[in-house]
Every structure is written in C-alpha cells, then in structure tokens.
Design goal:
The chain is α+β, with helices and mostly antiparallel strands. It has ten helices and 13 strands. The chain binds N-hydroxy-L-asparagine.
C-alpha cells in the first residue's frame, strides 16, 4: 500500500477540524481503561452492553460478542441479525466474524440462515473447532448442535419491504443505497494491550443467494492483533473485500501510523488504485493497543456515524471523510 500523501491528508482533514479535535480529546485519555468503538448509531447500545459485560467480569471477547448481540436481536435494525433484510429470494442470510488479538485466531460464519445471533455462532466456531469459517448448511447444522434455536428471521416489516421490492418491475438489485445498509462492526481494547474485533451483518439487501460479503472474512470485516490493534469495516463488501481493509489498516498501524491515519491511508489507497472508488460506500474503524481510535468514511454519501465508549462515557460521533 502506498503511504498517504500528507498534503491530501491535511486538506482532507482541514474541513473536519471539529471531528479531529473531538477525537484528539478522546485520544488524550487513551490507555486509561477499556475502550469500545462501533459502527453506526446502534453501535452506541452495543458498546454500552459490551462495557457492562466487561465491567461485570466478562472477557473482552465475551463483551464484544454480547455487545454485537444487541443490534442482532433488535428487529428494528434492518441490516443485522433478526429483522435483517433478506436476499433476492426473501431468505435472510447472515454473515459474522470475531477475532481475538491474543490468540490471533478468528471464527466466522457465512450465509447462516434462521439463527439470529451469528456472532455467537462465529465465536463457537473459534472456540469449539479447529476451523475458522463455516458456511451455509454446515454453519446452520453446527449452530443447532451448539444448542441455538432456529427461527424465522423475517419480520413483518422486512417481509413487506422485500415484497414491495420484488413487485417493482425494474427493481434495482445487488446495490447499496445510503439508507438501506449498514453493519455492526466493533473493535475494543481492555486497556491492557488486548484487542478484539467483531462484525455482523445481513449483508447487501436482496443479494444473490449465497453471496458472501466482507464482514465474515478475516482481514476484511475483522482483524485483531495484540501486537498492534484491531480494525473493522462497513460498506460495499463486494468492493471492499478486494482491499483486505482491516488487515491493511492493522498493518499500517504496525508500521507506525495512528489509527486515524491508518484508516485514511486505506481509503486513500482505494482511490489511488481506482478513481471511481471516490464514490464508493466505504467506512472503517480502528483502535490500537493504547486505546487510540480512528474512524473514516470515503465520502459524504456514506458518512459513518460511530459510537465510542470510554471512561464510562458513551458518545455518538461522525467520522472524518476522505472526500
Ligand atoms: C456487506 N459490508 O455485506 C457489508 C454491508 C455493510 O454497510 O457493511 N453495509 O457487504
């Protein structure tokens, strides 16, 4: 990956001074305890749950899992877990992954049907098997063996929306629009140098059955390494997978970049390799082992709101944009 052009970078962030100073203030307190950072507005409730689990003696891994369970179980979050929008055939297929920075080990599930908490299944893939990823029918059978209850994941709301989409003569498909997708990505540290990353999504709405996005792929939707930090991504997974976003960000941090610079460097690299990516729906978050954070969006059309929990304070913030 090419290093970011500092002039481009300075120009980009100049218009985002307010966000920079907010984040600088947040980073001043780095190293002062656990930090939870998550994508989109439902990240706030997820962070608060994660912090509660951690403060009550749970592991960081458990905290991230239980935090992500919150939007997964919420029928009003139409892009994650129960109530997530279905594929083109009206079937909800979920993707999720979780990675433990100490063991450098991840678990993930792809195209999982009828199980509302895929992040919990992903954790069990990591903890109970020698595998990293289970997909489709195999992931479902594994979840049943682990005691998960199958249920329909379509809600009246998501069913009705799918029917309306299907009824449109020239319905747009396999594409994102600003209001119809999002994912929960979470990165966290315990304040003592341990990091975890988790990600869960119903993926692109009305996707082709069997389509796997970036979220459950190690190095794309999640990456965590206790030597450096952790990262997660949200956006057009069909595009972002090609940039191995999360591992690229963690490697940039390993070379000395701050989490924010590492996020910007990744987005900058996407634009340098293909100018069309200026219009891409892409956003990323990162944390290092000192608890410093980064969050960045490609452009205004897909402007990431992210949630930060630190020192008992739970905030919703807006990410810096590259363009
Ligand atoms: C995917 N990256 O399946 C996910 C969707 C997403 O914001 O994050 N949307 O491609």
């Amino acid at each position: 990956m090419e290093p970011i052009d500092r002039r481009d970078f300075i120009r980009t962030v100049a218009g985002s001074a307010a966000f920079v100073s907010l984040q600088a203030k947040a980073d001043e307190q780095a190293g002062a305890g656990p930090v939870f950072l998550a994508t989109w507005i439902w990240g706030k409730a997820a962070n608060e749950k994660a912090a509660e689990v951690f403060q009550n003696g749970g592991s960081l891994l458990e905290a991230v899992e239980k935090g992500i369970n919150v939007p997964e179980s919420d029928p009003n979050v139409l892009t994650v877990g129960y109530g997530g929008r279905p594929n083109s055939e009206g079937v909800v297929e979920l993707d999720a992954a979780i990675m433990d920075g100490t063991r450098h080990r991840a678990g993930s599930v792809c195209s999982l049907r009828m199980i509302k908490n895929p992040i919990s299944v992903a954790r069990l893939v990591m903890e109970k098997t020698r595998h990293t990823t289970l997909a489709g029918e195999g992931a479902f059978e594994f979840a049943l063996k682990m005691g998960f209850e199958p249920q329909t994941l379509l809600t009246p709301q998501s069913l009705q929306q799918w029917q309306e989409w299907k009824a449109k003569p020239h319905h747009k498909t396999f594409w994102l629009t600003p209001e119809n997708h999002d994912t929960i990505g979470m990165v966290a540290t315990d304040g003592k140098g341990h990091v975890v990353a988790g990600c869960s999504t119903s993926g692109l709405e009305y996707k082709l059955p069997g389509r796997v996005g970036d979220s459950p792929l190690v190095g794309c939707g999640v990456y965590a390494d206790d030597n450096v930090g952790a990262a997660s991504a949200t956006g057009d997974g069909d595009l972002m997978t090609n940039y191995c976003t999360s591992v690229s960000i963690v490697h940039a941090m390993a070379r000395g970049a701050s989490p924010q610079d590492a996020c910007m460097e990744l987005l900058n690299h996407m634009v340098k390799t293909d100018a069309k990516n200026r219009d891409a729906e892409a956003a990323v978050i990162a944390i290092n082992t000192r608890g410093e954070i980064g969050a960045a969006s490609m452009n205004d059309g897909f402007h990431l709101k992210y949630a930060l929990w630190r020192n008992g304070e739970s905030q919703l913030l807006e990410s810096i944009k590259l363009i």
